[in-house]
Amino acid sequence: MATLEQALLLNLGSGLSFGGEWCDALEKAAPKEIPETLILDGRNIGAIRVLYPEGSIAELTAAVNDLVRSADQRLHEGPWTVTDKKPTDPGVDPAAYRSLPKYWWPNQFGAWERRDGEVNPQCYAPKFDLLRLNTFSEAVFELALAAALTGEKKYHSRAIKLLQVWFVNAETRMTPHMENAQKIPDKPGHHWTGIIEGRRFIYLTEAIHLLAYAAPLPAGLDQALRSWFKAFLEWLQTSEMGKSAAAAKNNIGLWYDLTCIATANFIGDASTARK
Predict the structure, then answer these.
(1) Which parts of the chain sit beneath pLDDT 70?
(2) What pLDDT shows up at residue 27?
């Protein structure tokens, strides 16, 4: 089964719209409302919401039913928060995102060294946030998409709860930076390539667009989320990690640009998104 990231990259890279096999039916559906999406084709999301209750296209119905089954499982998962890290390294803010570079291992003397192509399974351990962020972003996106396509309030409510815990609640909110992403335990300073893990926020901003389309967001939540992402974008553009990623010519630089575009688009900063 494809992950959320694989599915979205296939959608973007292939040039096909979401639900490309049903293009004719989607074109004729003429939805009254269209979500302001960035990654997915909002016209198709609106069309599927019209067509799904009719059950007239077997493949479409089966695809949405698969999504609904997965979203039903997500209703009982989480919430997730960076403050769940246990144990927390001395001197590290528990509200700050923390992860381990995948290809770094301690050697026999306790010093850390890079082993190309060998993933250290400890990067997925509970004391780090990588798996937590990945699972959280997948869950919120699935719930938001299910809410947008079916109109079911239970998916909308659960996604809202998960967002509040990660981004808003004072006791559990993530600090809007990634200074400790892929930090090497025995080396001072920051590991700027860790900024690539922030690409997950692209899918979260898209999920928030879908939720706003499905039903109004709770009072104050929209502004709180925009404030968080505004601070995150400022960090992306002004931090030493961000400046290094912006200058990179590889996949790190690509994902940095995409993260900035999605974040700027979400907070309504059109000039930065165009730049």
Answers:
(1) 1-30, 87-88, 186
(2) 65
DSSP three-state, residue 195: helix
Contact 38, 206 (CB under 8 A): yes
| DSSP state for residue 164 in the 8-state scheme | I
Q: How far is residue 137's CA from residue 4's CA, in Å, rounded to a whole number?
A: 9
pTM, full prediction: 0.89
Token code pair at residue 269: 């900063």
In contact, 145 and 210? CB cutoff 8 Å: yes
Among 178, 183, 175, smallest CA distance to 259 is for 178
Q: What is the distance between the alpha carbons of residues 122 and 78, in angstroms, rounded to a whole number? A: 21
pLDDT in the model for residue 1: 43
Distance CA 78, CA 44 (A): 29
**Tokens representing 101?**
């570079």
pLDDT at 80: 97
199 contacts 259 by C-beta, under 8 angstroms:
yes
Residue 235 CA to residue 240 CA, distance in Å, equals 9
Write out the two tokens for 1: 């089964």
Contact criterion met (CB below 8 Å) for 146 and 71: yes
| In contact, 202 and 39? CB cutoff 8 Å | yes
Residue 117 φ then ψ, to 5°: 80, -5
